[in-house]
Amino acid sequence: MADIIKEILKFMPPKTISDAAFEGANIVLYTKDKKFFLDNKGEIRKVVNEFKKRIELRPDPSICMDQEKAKAEMIKILPEEANIGNILFAPQRSLVTIEAEKPGLAIGKQGSLLREIREKTLWVPLIKRTPSIRSVLIENIRAVLYQHSDYRRKFLDKVGHRIYDGWIREKKSEWIRMTWFGGARQVGRSCLFLQTPESRVMLDCGINVAGEGSDAFPMLDVPEFNIKELDAVIVTHSHLDHCGFVPYLFKFGYRGPVYCTMPTRDVMSLLVLDYVKIMKSENQEPPYDIDDIKEMVKHTITLDFEEVTDITPDVRLTLYNSGHILGSSMTHLHIGNGLHNLLYTGDLKFGKTELLDPAHTHFPRLETLITEGTYGGKANVMPPAREQDEFLKNIIKDTIARGGKILIPVLGSGRAQEVMVMIESMVRNNELEEIPVYIDGMVWDVTAIHTAYPEFLNKNIRKLIFHKDQNPFLSPIFKRIGSQKERMQVVEEKGPCVILATSGMLVGGPSVEYLKHLADNPKNSLVFSCFLAEGSLGKRIQSGVRELVTQVGTKQEITPIKLEVHKLEITGHSDRKQLMNYIFKCDPKPKKVVVVHGENSRILDLASSVHKLGRIETVAPRNLETIRIR
Length: 630
Prior knowledge:
Number of strands: 28
Helix content: 25-40%
Low-confidence stretches: none
Largest sheet: 7 strands, mixed
Shape: globular
Strand order of the largest sheet: 12-11-10-9-8-7-28
Mean pLDDT: 93
Strand content: 15-25%
CATH class of the largest domain: Alpha Beta
Distance between the termini: 33 Å
Radius of gyration: 25 Å
Structural class: alpha/beta
């Protein structure tokens, strides 16, 4: 048992604690004393104040009520209007997760119903929101976690021992070095490897969806990387270029923690499952399989924004809102005992969007900032958001007036929901006639996940959902497409409409299928809405290619592209102006800025401008380059 637990137990009244364990950086004490569990008379608070750690008291599993009886008791206690769904028990940890459509009603005034459940059943209840749109994926993830409840308890305890049992490597000096295995001077396969004398931490592990062969994946075959020594993986958000290669680590034996927010865990799981499915459908061998994805889920530790946690003996992690997509976070690392503080932004948006609040700017300490430069070039200044709303509205109106269909290829997470909210708002405010918006690909499933986590959305959306009962994602204009037959009905039988389909760059997915059928009709419109990587079909069409070549069996089919082609300049990334504003509004001001995740010229342009205007040291590393920051 780690020394910290021994010390904590000295503060507890004799014979009250039956067991103690780590849950990551948190410490859980178990008691068989019912009275002590229900009222510890402030003893736990005293210990928390003394050790400055999260410490929780739970009933020993042996005193918890029988599961079936407890379930019946909970249903009796909870109001019908809360619409209770699944009730999932984790017996080894004395936890029960109760899914409710209206969590507030299940919690009760000032937590009164939760207290009643604890008193009558001796289980510790956790209330989770049931998605307004059913999500089989969320149901499966929660089921996997609770099916492996015993394993999770052992795994979380093992993580805690790594944090608290002290240093496992000899410390001769203090230093911090960072190596880029991908995502430096390119967009795609983001992967940063951070080392200290004690810790090995990976920040993101993505794939390059437009890349081929080894260029698609991070460069892990380097001398300094040994998967057996990897302590932790942190995923900033769920786009494949940041998370798509994480299951590969589990295929090759990694069994440590993956830290991210809860929405990131859910959407990441969905996207990597879809990635495997698409590769198999194209007769390609995926780099990992479904079992590896399941292992990733079992080893994920979710954090809320601004929740501080130790992840190794000398690294402390805090996630902050990055404003990019649902659950996307910036990674703040406090390294050593005040030795250094760095912020890795991942992808960030420093501006309010239809869905999210702007990226966070205030931190306890900050010396090094690692920022993206996707739109960092001097020419990368986006038009005002209202102008783009108007632009989209006019495209839709004009296309419908001539009897055409509007195809909008979208990223499954982020851009799709942004466009959905834009169109729903226009219809609700009578700026646009009510037209069907068909949702195809994984967009529907990702949208369902959005309905499970409204607390991660901006104030306006939360107000619509909680106070006006007007969830924009539940609008009747949205219609799900779930089969090839339904897809062909939209193309051949349905009238004017909007189609949102993945993938956003036209690299596989149903968007390419729709384009094949809609391309040769000048009444139709194609509206790109996301970053288009060099080499992707989307980029080639935007650059003027007017023939679509597709393989049908052994023959090639050529379809002329006669529809109107537009690019909607909305982005979940910050443009040049926002990036500069963000860097200079960070509080405290960083002493060093590292620019990654962007095309070579844009990265160098942004780094040069930050140096000249801010008198800040800047670096634009290449892949496999190592920087020592302390």
